[in-house]
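User: My instructor asked us to take a sequence, write out its structure as tokens, and then describe one feature of it. I'm not sure where to start. Here is the sequence I was given:
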Amino acid sequence: MFQSAKKWKRLAVGALAAMFAVGALSGCGGGSSSGGSAGGNVKIEMVAKGFQHDFWKAVRMGAEQAGKELGADINFVGPDSESAVAQQVEMIKNAVNKHPAALCLAALDTKATLDVIGQAQQAKIPIIGFDSGVPGAPAGAIVANAATDNYAAGGIAAENMMKAIKGKVTQAQGAVRIGIVAQDSNSESIGQRTKGFVDKMIQLLEAEPALGTGSVAVVGHDKYANGKTDGKVIIEVRIPSEVSDNAGKTEAATLLNKPDLMAIYGSNEFSAKCIINANETLQKLGPDKVIAVGFDSGALQINAIKTGLFIGSVTQDPVQIGYQAVKLAVAAAKGEKVEDVDTGALWYDAKNMDDAKIKPCLYQ
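Assistant: Let's start with the prediction itself. The structure tokens for your sequence are:
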């Protein structure tokens, strides 16, 4: 899973079962079955960050579907939890010792895997990163990645928020504020989701004649600040001092209590939950109040969308992550040139969350 949230990945088991029965990858794992046998000669080892969560079950499903189509045997494994670094390292060692045609890897701790990655390179086993991949791996160690473009996904959140606030923000008599709650400043995936949102929102706002170039100030955290302290629109990024519900809720409440706040964005499930929990006593969110947009899903966030507290959120596509990782692995095993693949992100709201291409991507 992306390091943005350790417990984000719970897909509805019933939805997964239905997808298995249909055997087709559409929407959240699109593509069509072209036949082939899972008992082919190409052996692909796949080591994930976990195994039990429904997110990884969906990734595995996409991987096995690709294996079936491309004639590859997939051995999908993962540790008991996303803190079991040593267990995962042993799994990677076992995978490399089998001398597979290719290895797909979502590393819990890149530093802990450096030795075994070196062994794979010496054995000329191509490594494909998937989901969060292997951030910080030695140059050339990972031949390609199948993962969400988090920067672009953050932009999707900004585009949909802008649709909801455009009229109010361009007609505002004074400065208005857009808040962002980000889980932490170190996670690459969360950082990209936040930066993508900020950059796209600035682009959209400053394209409006009523606002213009230089009208947006980004404040609140040095990582994202643009050097301006005021403007027609202020984007304020708040990051809790620690990843805890109370700390996140405090940051969300600080934003919600600001009288000029027009909209707020939570860049992962944790951040969205903090916004929702802070709103329980403040009652600031709603279609005619502060507009809220989230990322990922989870029961609390899905309910917030159904009830109108959030206008919608962005979800990743775990089935496509598995599918495209195996597709890259098979190509790399054949010596073909491979490149990173964006496995996509989807906007969902109360109107489309039950659509066939959306529902399987949403976990409770």
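For the description part of your assignment, you could build on this observation: The first strand starts at residue 42 and ends at 47. Try explaining in your own words what that tells you about the chain.
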